[in-house]
Write a structure and sequence with these properties.
The chain has 57 residues and is an alpha+beta fold. The protein has a three-stranded antiparallel β-sheet with strand order 1-3-2. Helix 2 packs across helix 3. The model has no long low-confidence stretch (mean pLDDT 86).
Length: 57
């Protein structure tokens, strides 16, 4: 479900914020954070900068 929009986004961008993730996937903040935690746990997303919390696919 999330693979297509994320793959498309990351084909044009090298990082994203939680707000970008929310907008692209059409989720509320809490739901987006849950999905981000899950994807980080799988190793599919990683945090690039803890101060700015940007993710890389």
């Amino acid at each position: 479900m999330l693979n297509t929009p994320l793959t498309s986004y990351f084909s044009q961008n090298h990082m994203m914020t939680r707000g970008d993730f929310q907008r692209i996937c059409g989720m509320m903040k809490a739901t987006a954070m849950g999905h981000i935690r899950h994807l980080r746990g799988e190793g599919r997303l990683k945090i690039l900068d803890y101060r700015l919390v940007r993710y890389m696919y």
